[in-house]
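To the structural biology subgroup,

Please find below the input and predicted structure for Cholesterol oxidase, which we are adding to the shared reference set this quarter. The sequence is reproduced verbatim from the submission form. If anyone notices a discrepancy with their own records, reply to this email rather than editing the shared folder directly, so we keep one authoritative version.
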Amino acid sequence: MANPIFDYEAIVIGSGFGGSISFCRLAQKWGSKVLLLERGRHYPMGSFARSPKQISDSFWSVEGDAVDRPRHIQNKNLRGLFDIRNYKKMDAVISAGLGGGSLIYANVFLEPPEQVFEQGWPTSLDKATLAPYYQVAKQVLGARPVPSWQNEERRKIVRTELFQEFAAHENRSSKLADICVFFGNDYNYKGSDSPIPIGLQEKNRYGATQTSCTYCGECDVGCNTHSKNTLDLNYIHAGEHQHGGRVLTDCQAEKIVPLNQHGDDDSSASGEFGYRIEFQNFASGKLESLKTRRVVVSAGTFGSNELLLRCRDVHRSLPKLSEQLGRWFSGNGDFLSFAIEGKKDADPNYGPVITQYTDYNLFDRFNRQQAFVLEDASYPASLAWYIEGIFPTSTLRKLIRALKALIEWLKKYLSNGVWNGTLGFSLHEILKDDLSSKSVVMLCMGLDHGDGTLTLNADNRIDLDWPQDTSMSLYQAILAAGERFKKFVKSNWFFPLPTWDLPIRHNVTVHPLGGCILADSPDKGVVSGHPEQRGQAFGYQGLYVVDGSILPSAVGANPVATISATAEWIAEGITGIKPDASLGV
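Predicted structure (tokenized):
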């Protein structure tokens, strides 16, 4: 009996780094017979939320998904950019939108050391194997350090120098990070040391219009100038506009079913006759389905694990998936903390979110129990105004300064009857030395134990059990470094996120990994790390998982580079085409 007629040669579920790379590479081979499904929306230039009302609606919480979220967004039926999750001992912030996590990440492309691959990874997959794929992804994403400010004062980033000074004080190395931010084609893609002027626009090497970084600090809330090299401006753009691949946004995959030789649903099949994908189309409000020869699941760590767990344990459509599904979850050691009102200038509202990393036993003097990197961070100026308004000591200081300004006005008026110039003086007194200008945000990530477990809750939606204590030595080392930073800048306060305070004691991750890990066999993981079956789910043919969920451990460094490299490696295995940075453009 002939195979059924497929709607597509391949359907990719999710448009983060794994999904976008898969979509582009598969579209290079099969063109319009490749479909990308993304649950979130497309965000054109200038469309990210900025007003209070827009921000309040910029969260993800669709009706019926039964995920525990903050009360103010729970059950609001929102389809915005930020998806905030609350789990046992671990909260998470992930993204929904065309481009996935690239829309809100901090741009860093950082390869981990080879020691990371020596524990938990498949025997045939190591740093040397992935090296050429790292290089290709780095070139596509245009990853380079921030331009020098030696001859252009406007590009100076004060906090970068502050973190470099602290690293020297600690006898640690601080290096400028390669970041996926646009400073002009010649700078990003041709290795020139001359960026185009700030705010100038040009088409990137793949044909998408971008703006040379404006140093606004808004990377993590969606870049309205398209100065970030987000995936919709390179991999997705090339896959759709150059190779004819099809993109459907507002569509969330709900079910994967193998087909038999007659083209009918058959849960006993192993994928040799293709699959049917069932998905919710939010735009039409309908449940739709399509048939495809192969499937690439790239819905992110929470999305991919939930989809596959439900297919195995609820729908029973993929019963052969490994029993290891959901195991070895990692938060990549993410830890966020603050040093407030120091005596050294920080200016955290200017420049790309991250510019440097300071090494603590990850690259040098490797120590698996306490290996992490310390990175600087910026945040939008609009948030600085908000902080000025709500922080109690800041408000008191402003009242005292306002009183001082009033006294000066009265003295001047009573002595000569003149009051002009008072407004400018008052504004200066009230706004000088604002809380943000001398405060520091510290981002850390490291090698946690990666021993969390993802399961389904009573509503058959993803849940997480995070055994925090096993990674406590890492968190203690991070906290100790933060306390030393506080003393270095002579700050009044150092504190981690409020969620870390007792009795809550929650981590927050923006880099969830694991659950569908690469392995040598199904008793150790979910997808194959063998060169001949790259990323293919054990027990199934033509079913792949390609995203952060397949990383077998924390990588310590920002994981985008490693997710991208493994995605390029898997895509080459599927298509047989050796990848290069041109994307076929």
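Summary notes: The first strand starts at residue 8 and ends at 13. Residues 295 and 543 are 5 Å apart (CA to CA).

Regards,
Lab coordination
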